[in-house]
Amino acid sequence: MNSDPVDAILAQWQKERPDLDVSPMGIVGRVGRLSKYLDRAIQETFSDFGLNAGEFDVLATLRRSGQPYQLSPTELFNTLMVSSGTMTHRIDRLEQADLVKRTPDPSDRRGTLIELTDKGFNLIEKAVEAHVANEHRLLAVLEDAERDALTQLLRKLLTSFETY
Fold it and tell me: Could you list the mean pLDDT of each consecutive 10-residue stretch along the chain, which spans 164 residues?
């Protein structure tokens, strides 16, 4: 198997501190580096649709929620793990672009729902297809069994941080 830049870092630490087990640096370092490459490649696809990652996330969350493609701002920011201020900013930008609209919540007189417009629905349909195709391309180096194994390992690690 080929070596990567993280291997060089680990070798340096091994030479300088042979008493220290730096093997976790290999995993965490690779995940961090991969995250940067993946984020960049994914953002390129979103840019083709005039979106950034946060805006895509809002539109995709509304789309996958099913008809009538609407959620409260609280449901959105809880799902997307962002602050209410960040969510308000994203919704404002998407509303200005006529991709979402605010509507009164019929079950809560003080509440508001965020709903996909027809324009937003059409955009996210195209963007999500391109996004999924891009992710397939990004993972094409892995065989199906490797992808399955990686999925299981990443799920195990992620659930150690996230509780539901």
Answer: 91 96 96 96 97 96 96 89 88 97 89 96 98 98 97 95 76
First to last CA, the chain: 38
What is the rounded distance in angstroms from the CA atom of residue 120 to the CA atom of residue 153? 35
* CATH class of segment(s) 48-159: mainly alpha
At 30, the amino acid letter reads: R
What is the Rg, in whole angstroms, of the alpha carbon atoms belonging to the chain?
Answer: 20
Widest pairwise Cα distance in the chain: 66
Please report, for the chain, the start and end positions of each structural domain, with discontinuous segments joined by +: 1-47, 48-159
Question: What is the three-class DSSP state of 128?
Answer: helix
DSSP for 141-161, please give it: TS-HHHHHHHHHHHHHHHHTT
Helix count and strand count (H, E) for the chain: 7, 3
* Rounded distance between C-alpha atoms, residue 80 and residue 90, angstroms: 11
**What are the beta bridge partners of residue 151?**
none
pTM score of the predicted model: 0.88
Amino acid letter, 42: I
